[in-house]
Records
---
Amino acid sequence: MNLFPVFSDGSFPAALQFIPAVVIGFFFGFVLERSGFGNARILAAQFYLHNMRVFKVMFGAIVTAAVGLAITSATGLLDMSALFIPETFAWPHLVGGLLLGVGFIVSGYCPGTAIVAAASAKWDAVVTLVGVVIGSVVFGEMYGFIGEFHVSSALGVFTLPDWLGIGMPLLVAALALIAVGAFFGAELVEKFFAARSGKVKEASMNSLGKLLLVGLSGAAVLGAALFLVLPAATGPAVTPAYSAISVIELARMMVEEPRSIYLVDAREDAACQTSDRLPAAICLADITGDLAYMKPRQLLVLYGEEQVDASRLPPELARYTGRVALLVEGARGWNDLVVTPEPAPELLAALTLADRQLVGALNAYFTGAKVQVQAAAPRPKVKRKLKKSGGCS
Amino acid sequence: MNAPDKQVFTPPGSDNDGVEGKLWNPYLGGVALGLVLLASFLVLGHGIGASGAASRLGVTALAAVAPEHVAETPYFAKYSEGGASPLSNWLVFGVVGVFLGGAVASMTGGRQKSGVVRGPRISVGARLALALTGGVIMGFAARMARGCTSGQALSGGALLSVGSWVFMLSVFAGGYALALVVRRQWQ
């Protein structure tokens, strides 16, 4: 189903990645050089505001790649969860960024552009690269002192859609529009500061530049419009086909292969947060932003108080690329069969002996009651030591 | 406003900031760079990095001089887990490609000229000293942030990672904060 990424973990020997890595690196270096990133004075000019190429190229590249990722993952071509997304370490990222910015303006390069400039025989870039190598080794030598800070404020894989609670397509569309606005702003800033420092402003808003910006903003408007209009226009007619799962089937999966399911509480967020959830269940509202990144090999099981009304589920659910199943009997059914000490006889009568044993074992496990049918699941032993009183408590 | 005495890349009366040859329109460059980055995601499953290779090169060099010290330092030892060379990694091969691409582009673009890029008011020695200092700071910073402008800001930024965006904004903040102090180097 997912064509991309071609080299997801384990499907090819790692060494086979080296060839495409060289090819992609080649084009990366080529485009950087053609964009003027092999020249320290152009790179530094970003910080004196009379030539904002760095900002234009970087922001343009980020938005272009993000639009591409949003389209390929929305159409199912790309399995977003198989991509390597850098984890967030808030404070190390902030401090590292500030230091890198200082190093950038002092040396005139960042590590990648120094490689490009070194390739065109600029000795200051070669010296910068020697410095980068030394700096990395210094970091390793100092790790005893800074290691604790380096792993602090760890937030895991944490994306802007998670943080802001906005879906990826809408966020990317907004980003593209912000970029176009910022580009026009950058042109004005350049004009002002170039005049002040007696430089000639670079004519980047020629017909080609304008065409690209119009294209970018068009893509953004189209993306946003599709995202906003599509669910309303198509409505319940294309409600995705969810499969059904019964309490006993869910129970069996939870016992036999607990890692193959995501159990998700689809009740109203307030109700979900305050009431008892099924074991290890997460609230739907908490994961709406993550859906596109979650492992599609797992079965996502949704439950409500009773059966979930599929037409009332949020449209973001379509961003989960794996299978989705609805719990037929809902949380109430789970409680009636598994959590209650004595399930109603008519419920048990419908089950096979093996299922009845399973229910008995689960019942004992979740309620702490004595196993009523044979085949016990081990109950975790809880040893409590009485703390000696003393000191403050 | 005296006339600058030595300007390495600035033919009199011509382009800004001493650029020779014609550069791409920056918006075209941005879109092209984004497509290369997208290709990296779609084919390799990850973005592009630059500082990781420098770090691996440093560990390799250190291991040649003091192998026991590298083996005993956990931060270095993890690079050669399983006995593999720290250089046997896609990051290193990617950087080889970046170098080749930069060389081909500068040769065909008429910018392949040996020299030291600097503003009109700074000596070669001072410029090289600053380049080395900035490099050391960046090497340290890139390890702290687990990536540099390529691997963290560009690649992580396109993946909408919050940490990458924090990093990117901080890079600009750090640069602007110090820009006036080192102005003599460039202007």
---
Amino acid sequence: MSEEQLHDSTEAFERALARPREECYMLRLYVTGMTPKSARAIANVKAICEEHLKGRYELEVIDLYQRPQLAEGEQIIAAPTLIKDLPLPLRRVIGDFSNSERVLVGLDLRMKT
Amino acid sequence: MAELETQLPKSPTGIQGLDEITGGGLPQGRPTLVCGGAGCGKTLLAMEFLVRGVTQFNEPGVFMAFEETAKDLTQNVASLGFDLEDLIARKKMVLDFVYIERSEIEESGEYDLEGLFIRLGHAIDSIGAKRVVLDTIESLFAGLPNPLILRAELRRLFRWLRGKGVTAIITGERGDATLTRQGLEEYVSDCVITLDHRVNDQVSSRRLRVVKYRGSTHGTNEYPFLIDEGGFSVLPITSLGLQHAVSLEHIPTGVPRLDAMLGGVGYYRGSSVLVSGTAGTGKSSLAAHFVDAACRRGERAIYFAFEESPDQITRNMRSIGIDLMSWVEQGLLRFEASRPTVSGLEMHLARMHKAVNAFKPEVVIVDPLNSFHVGSNEIAVKAILMLLVDFLKTNQITGLFTNLTSGGNESDQSDVVIASLIDTWLLVRDIELGGERNRGMYVLKSRGMAHSNQIREFLLTDHGAELRDVYVGPSGVMTGSARLVQEAQEQARKLTRQQEIEQRQLELECKRSALEAQIATMRAVFEVQEAESLRIVRQEQAQEAQLAQERVDMGISRKADATEKTPEGESK
């Protein structure tokens, strides 16, 4: 292995590290009906996404009461649950997202302190 | 009892024995907590509740697993003959594995378990489930943050389950001081069942106990249960009651003199016989005789041996002239030999049940019972024996049990424990007398027949066991050599008496001969005299005739007045 090749791979790794920030976020938010908690959760998630992921996220809000079969398929227990499908790894955040720091940690946008 | 049942509807579990303990099953439409340590069978109990619900009571069920995946569960219970895939395909069961990975979950603010409710609700509604199992819901505490929320949500869950009207089993791991690690018993308080898997003296046994059952009477004891290929079965002591029909038929014991002691007929068919005695008194030999007699009649027998191997038994019995091997070859006799320590009592009982059900014998031998006495488990032994006796009696099988006693004290403690279950109790014991040990036997009790109260000497000869009368002398019963001496003495006395009689008879004969000789002599003398007398008489007569003639002649010669032709008589 030559010196040049090694150098190249390091650069590629650094580029790869930088890339997720620009990656598109696929998010799904499962709520249970239009309870105040659900409303609060939707509002909080939207605010966080707008602030940190503006223009590069897709958020789907699903009401479990409407599609209960999804609860089993998606392994949902708690509500509300926010699932980050992409970028990997898969992450779940539960709660009403009032603590935006924890949401950001959950979305891998911030390291756990 | 019946009134209570109408007050509180119950869901039968279909699990052998459990319904009898709980008086009909689990409380219908309410959650039941099943708790116990690792590997004690919680999941299996819950699963069987569901499967039997479907197969026996047509009540579909939902199994929500928090620990095992659906695939694992299906595989695990397949060995018990439960085909979950089929049940799921027929829409009779839903198997839902709840996957919680702590590292994937981040908590931000308050949450609830509405997702689980919806999920469970959907599963229940999709098949119209009547039964629900949550196994083990405590896993939530490890997977989800904020226990305070969880506790509140669990409380809500159980209330919701009641509202749904499903009969639920919630399993929980046993905690240090509480029944479950997370104190679930606070929330599920209608019915609590604990399972226990304990090891006593290196032998494991499983126990089940109904800790509480609101609104219903229930058996409060610890009941042994077992898990085998047929699933879960609890062994409630009172399960069969005392309703078995009895037979009036007698079956011979195989020892004719013993039959004579037992009212001349032998044991009752379907009775339980205990042969107890100290070591080497011939208990197994009596059992072998009984087996031999049964096989001779063409009946089947199972010999459960716990101390000797089948080979050893057949060899030993051959020495007293009983060939058990030929019965084995003819398929009339089956040996089931194992060490008592190989498994717990319940497993032994289950094994016996299975063997008896498969072989359908008329006679069952358990040799010996006391092998089960390990430490101080007498109550357990009695319970198991009671179940065994009940089982045999219900099937009209005659059971013969041997029991080794420690000697000295005839009715050893272990005997007392089981004595009340026994119909016919034979005691074989050593009688030490005159520097030797001999076997003695008597019938301690025999229900329902006139039996001998005699002690018999019990001999093992090369043609089987023999019973002899014992002599009762001034120093107690006489056996062995003492008996032989006594017999010899009696023989001698008898001989002497006989000789005396003969002597007297001889003397009498002598006297008679003497008398007769005397009579003969006298008769001879008489005859001689008689002859002499007659001769004299004739002589006299002849002389007289002579004289008369002479007188006539004289007259003629004198030419007296008499005519020539005058007869003699008229001449006078």
